[in-house]
Amino acid sequence: MDLIGRLSHAVCSAARVIILAAAALLPVVTPASAVEVRHGLSLFDSLKYGPDFEHFDYVNPDAPKGGTLRISAIGTFDSLNPFIIKGRAGALSSMIYDTLLEPSQDEPSTYYGLLAESVSHADDFSWATFVLRKEARWHDGEPVTPEDVVFSLEALKEGHPQYAYYYQNIVKAEKTGEHEVTFTYDQAGNRELPLITGQLPVLPKHYWEGTDDQGRKRDFFSTTLVPPLGSGPYRITAVNPGSTITIERVEDYWGRDLPVNVGRHNFDRIRAEYFRDSTIALEAFKSDRFDVRFETSAKDWATAYNFPAVRDGRVILDVIKTENPEPMQAFVFNTRRAKFSDRRVRLAFNYAFDFEWANQNLFYGQYTRLDSYFAGSELAATGLPEGLELEILEPLRGEVPDEVFTTVYKNPVGGNPAAVRRNLRTASQLLKEAGWEVRDNRLVNIETNEPMRVEFLLVQPTFERVVLPYRRNLERLGIEVSVRTVDVSQYQNRVDQFDFDIVVNSWPQSLSPGNEQRDFWSSAAADRPGSRNLAGIADPAIDKLIDRVIYAKSREELVAATRALDRVLLWHHFVVPQWYADGTRVARWNRFGLPDEPPPYGLGFPDTWWYAPEAARAAGTGN
After folding, report:
1. In terms of residue numbers, what domain contains 296?
2. Cα(451)–Cα(437) distance, rounded to whole angstroms?
């Protein structure tokens, strides 16, 4: 996935992905009231920044404003509303909105007030109250009100099933003061709920319940290419349907001087241009059609960046590292389909995948095999369970795979013909134990006589070079394999409806996992269209472990519960783990300024960068 794959999911497609974090509240001031009033939220740990902080440490508070940033997008779009399930929202379309709270990128799972100037909550986290800033304004000058917040929650929950699921624990939102909104939760003890509420993007009620220039009533639940009203640092100013979107910095943005915004949102304009696929986008980058490319192809990183602009310094190559867990990227089985219901079958597919060969011959040795859903962090399961983790797992003995208690999880190792033959023999034995046998060179189910046929559904043509060697090994087991690459819209529709055998997916994680784990792995999400439980996991023991993560009362318990969840997910073999790189590979034209040190829990892009034409002149571009 290139830059827009990241921006669309992490920054610009708020309808599909909300930044994962969890929170408990830290006191800031304690006026003469029944509850503590707070300026920031953090899970278990203290806040780095006090109530009078001036700016985040990872920004340049003196960064100049100006210039245009050009980014790429893959595919197309047909809507500017990123909060509904209909249509495909355009890149950047979520950047026109503010949320109640703003994340800090140099603290794990910590947020500070944006639209909300303060927060208070019940001791048992059964409710939370947010006080809005009186100066908060929409781009048309109207104030942001508690009514807007209540409307936003209701509209989002109705507009997209992921929002309905993510905010399902909020049973009521009501105006409790002139600038105050109180949220009531359906449970106590869930420390994350106040922060989840703080992530709420706030929408203008008066706009969506009003009429357009032709006197027609607006419909929030329909796609639109008319730029909506926002309150954030940017507004949409130009749209070429399916091709380009441009947003422009709002000069009189109400929140520009807030501590959470100082040194950020520095570009006058950000423009996203769409390309058919990543290969075309790469050539466009070389031709200076856009400015920054996040490279996910190891082959391209190793071979495609030896062009003149790189050699003479006009294009800079960099690898940005963060302290976040590495996301599990994998081949994902649709276990709703009977052929994948036995974990021995799924494990056999892992034995057929030769990562070591792929890493040497396709990836130029740039990757490490994933062996955890939280790789590279203290949350990853290691060794055998002990201490508090073992205490958490003991009541589930008999409900989880026996190997959870007896065996350290390791992926099969290939890399040479002898190892591949050994692995395929193991895979064949696993398939036989699961009720499959080879007849006339075809693997068939012993009871039903149905052949094992699988389709790899892809959205990126570049991934075919990974799947085709994998297919050869699977075919040696008698499995009939087809590979189908479709366009973005068709792919998303099929995935949303779970109409696939095997897809490639990744699940980004934070250092403080919580309620989002329900959307990833819980029984309740297994058959809910649009959920991120692509594997179709419906397992009571996993549901219990998710609750232990969510209701953890200390950092120690959170780590232990997450390790237990990680271990159980691995031993169910819901996926064939793939790989991760040591950092994020970034290519950029040399016309930007960056803070001296990137934040440890984020890339800082694009909001902490700024336009620096003097860098381009120094590199000889003259731009």
Report:
1. 278-320+583-618
2. 9
